[in-house]
Design a protein that fits this description.
Blueprint (H helix, E strand, L loop, with lengths): L2 E5 L4 H11 L4 E5 L15 H16 L3 E10 L20 H11 L9 E11 L8 E11 L15 E3 L4 E2 L5 H7 L1 H13 L1
């Protein structure tokens, strides 16, 4: 029996990733757009708060369990920025390209040794909108920021994120490789073990 769960996101990259990763374990991941769920205002001050806000919003509107992910990239030299503001780092009409350009400008002239960064992902699974004990899982992926984008895969900051264990950018990894080592994959493995 397949369990339907709403993904509290409008990001097609995330939807793809979750559908792929959860199909094998009996979950049908539906986009919130299918239910005309408006994006929740991300007013939290942490990845955890924002993920809970998004999951609760999707549960309340659809009546189904919801899965929300809040993720972003933290750069050591920038004291953890862009962090929770990763998706809108370059302003209200931010695109992947404008965010990457702003990050490169912020790190101009900074040596490789000081460009340490990590992707963070917090996943929240809520059974219903009043769920007092949502499942909360976290995963991180250590790397550093390159001086120029490389690769065409992935989304977000992937062309700038150097994955040391593979010696290339996240955008140069295959979907399968990324699906094994990414911050989202780690958080999801934790979630799956709790759901089972």
């Amino acid at each position: 029996m397949t369990q339907q769960v709403v993904l509290a996101s409008s990001n097609p990259g995330k939807l793809n990733e979750f559908q792929q990763l959860l199909a094998n374990v009996g979950f049908e991941v539906l986009p919130q757009s299918q239910f005309n769920v408006a994006d929740a205002a991300e007013t939290g001050l942490s990845f955890v708060e924002n993920a809970i806000i998004k999951a609760r919003n999707a549960c309340r509107t659809t009546g189904l369990p919801a899965l929300a992910d809040d993720s972003g990239i933290e750069v050591d030299y920038l004291k953890g920025q862009p962090g929770i503001y990763s998706a809108r780092y370059s302003g209200p009409n931010a695109t992947n390209e404008s965010n990457n350009t702003k990050l490169l400008q912020a790190l101009q002239g900074v040596p490789a040794s000081e460009r340490g960064a990590r992707y963070q992902c917090v996943l929240v699974y809520m059974r219903h909108s009043e769920d007092p004990t949502p499942l909360i899982c976290q995963g991180s992926w250590e790397g550093r920021i390159l001086e120029a984008p490389t690769g065409t895969g992935g989304f977000g900051y992937d062309p700038l994120f150097f994955a040391p264990e593979h010696g290339c950018s996240a955008a140069e990894l295959s979907k399968d490789e990324k699906g094994k080592i990414s911050h989202r994959a780690k958080a999801l493995q934790s979630l799956l073990s709790q759901l089972q």
